[in-house]
Fold Creatininase family protein.
Amino acid sequence: MKISESNWFEIEKYLETDDRCILPLGSTEQHAYLSLSVDSILSEKVATDAAEPLGVPVFPAIAYGLTPYFMAFPGTVSLKLTTYALLLRDILDSLYSTGFRRILIVNGHGGNSPVQPVTMEWMEAHEGARCRFHDWWRAPKTWACVQEIDPVASHASWMENFPWTRLPGRDLPDEQKPFVPFDRLRDRNAAAVRDLIGDGNYGGVYQRPDADTERLWAIAVDETRALLEGDWA
């Protein structure tokens, strides 16, 4: 149940019997030949697909995140860590004030991980609140599926290339790009990161058969749904 497709009367009625919701986190950053909104598209869709049979509300993805290392790629937008932490805390406060108590954060961007302590601090200050932080693409079963299909997978490669993140009419390279080790990215500014990774793909083939990505997506959705259905006590 998308919040964007609901009215407040329906949410008030829902809260009479359930207090769960999902907050997707995304970003606006380069993904080589894919959409700049890949992380937001994927986090909101995996959340929506997981929540649909349960009727749990899914809030719109936060479309901006922490991505200073990609600021040499036009179209990328990065927030300061302090700004992002305050934004997330304000959103969680609002959810709590209106009646939500069990909140699943579905994160679609690895750079957002530094805000995880905010959720723990927030729970300490809000009686009865539970907040889970879920990196959907690297959850155990989902990541195992990635490794089984093709272990040379990374940012902007096939593992983020779905029908809903592709841009019509754009041709993709058909070779496997050599993998860029993450440790070579950690001590570089944004311009040097762009020089190192070129088109933005960290390594791997750009696209695999839809049968592979459909299998990966089904596992990701199931694993996300299990967190909604699991023990919140």
